[in-house]
Backbone:
């Protein structure tokens, strides 16, 4: 465990986020906790809560008998956060059993993805982190039937989709439109791929399904991805800027959950998926948290060219040296754009769409100064020249961030499509078209309840 003088909490939180600690790490963590006075412990808890690792760390505190080392109010706050997350996750899992049973009855093969799987296979703790939704993988041929299951159970679609998300799966997408349970306890993310087919990544889905393994989810027989494909999924899903201790430790703890990994086979899978650069980015950041990743695996994945992701990694490592915490560049700007795209889609009339279109353009071409600095991974104390340059390159970096998710070609086509959709919406003033909110009201659903449920996503 590193001794960061600039941000001492980073090393402590990272070490405590491990599912298994060495004796030396245990002694060091316990010593640091004992040395903190009550106000300092409170600041540490606030740090953990900010970076969403408080539930994960509560598990470690309890497992190692360290809760008595904390002052009672601080220990209670760790326990309360974990209890709340555990309660929400268990309610979601209980709801998931209902549609998984129906999938099983109708012969729909399904694999549980990421955190909802790792609860059982890596952490063995239903409260280790807050889940946004319940992600699952199906075959594209089963999407129509899956939607029928959701309809039969009274689930509510979150929007109308972009055309391909309804009925048949779109060739340009790897996910269907989301649904939420009638009690608002479970948002379901149904997908038939690990990454958008318009991106530069190429995952062999036939090989992926052939290597899935059986998994018992509260008595329902489903599938889980192979360890290698689970790791690949985490790599592909890792945000360029939306990445912190919690995300990186999922990667490290997955690696830690198996005593032996065939590095050559793993590297081959990553190379075949065209994910070498993203894998190196992800594992290098995970190594900042753990400090114990295999050097030989990192060497096998070191990229030969220097592109957008490599430059972001260089800047992130430089930021970490200066501040002691690479999370200083953390943000979820892409989600802000996604939310505005969602609202652009659900409003039928031009004046509503125009407002969202203008907001999207603002987010891309005129990001706020703070966000421009984060896109360039600049530490505090930057010069006027650095600030000016960050502002100038920000639009390109925003486009690059979007293109990382869906590819450059589709990014440009998407904005052309938005322009056409905006103009085409003029006809909706003369030809009445049901809005999404009107649809909700027709089902006796208060749109405010849906907005509140979606807003709870972090």
Residues:
């Amino acid at each position: 465990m590193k001794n960061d003088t600039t941000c001492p909490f980073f090393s402590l939180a990272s070490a405590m986020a491990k599912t298994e600690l060495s004796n030396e790490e245990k002694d060091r963590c316990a010593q640091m906790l004992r040395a903190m006075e009550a106000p300092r412990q409170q600041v540490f808890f606030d740090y953990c809560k900010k970076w969403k690792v408080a539930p994960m760390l509560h598990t470690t505190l309890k497992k190692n008998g360290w809760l008595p080392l904390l002052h009672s109010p601080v220990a209670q706050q760790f326990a309360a956060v974990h209890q709340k997350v555990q309660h929400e996750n268990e309610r979601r899992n209980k709801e998931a059993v209902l549609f998984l049973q129906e999938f099983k009855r109708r012969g729909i093969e399904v694999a549980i993805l990421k955190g909802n799987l790792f609860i059982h296979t890596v952490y063995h703790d239903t409260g280790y982190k807050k889940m946004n939704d319940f992600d699952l993988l199906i075959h594209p041929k089963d999407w129509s039937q899956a939607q029928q299951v959701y309809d039969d159970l009274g689930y509510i679609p979150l929007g109308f989709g972009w055309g391909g998300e309804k009925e048949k799966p779109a060739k340009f997408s790897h996910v269907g439109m989301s649904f939420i349970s009638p009690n608002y306890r479970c948002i379901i993310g149904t997908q038939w791929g690990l990454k958008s087919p318009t991106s530069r990544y190429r995952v062999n889905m036939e090989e992926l399904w052939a290597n899935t393994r059986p998994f018992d989810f509260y008595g329902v027989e489903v599938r889980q991805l192979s360890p290698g494909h689970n790791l690949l999924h985490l790599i592909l899903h890792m945000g360029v800027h939306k990445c912190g201790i919690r995300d990186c430790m999922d990667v490290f703890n997955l690696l830690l959950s198996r005593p032996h990994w065939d590095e050559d086979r793993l590297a081959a899978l990553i190379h075949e998926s065209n994910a070498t650069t993203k894998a190196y980015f992800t594992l290098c950041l995970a190594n900042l948290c753990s400090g114990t990743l295999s050097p030989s695996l990192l060497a096998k994945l070191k990229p030969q060219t220097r592109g957008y992701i490599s430059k972001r990694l260089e800047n992130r490592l430089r930021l970490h040296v200066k501040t002691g915490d690479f999370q200083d560049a953390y943000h979820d700007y892409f989600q802000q754009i996604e939310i505005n795209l969602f609202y652009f889609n659900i409003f039928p009339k031009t004046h509503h769409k125009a407002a969202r279109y203008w907001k999207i353009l603002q987010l891309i071409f005129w990001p706020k100064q703070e966000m421009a600095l984060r896109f360039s991974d600049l530490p505090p104390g930057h010069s006027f020249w650095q600030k000016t340059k960050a502002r100038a390159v920000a639009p390109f970096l925003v486009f690059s961030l979007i293109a990382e998710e869906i590819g450059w070609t589709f990014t440009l086509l998407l904005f052309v499509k938005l322009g056409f959709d905006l103009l085409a919406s003029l006809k909706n003033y003369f030809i009445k078209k049901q809005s999404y909110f009107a649809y909700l009201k027709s089902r006796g659903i208060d749109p405010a309840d849906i907005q509140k449920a979606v807003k709870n996503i972090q």
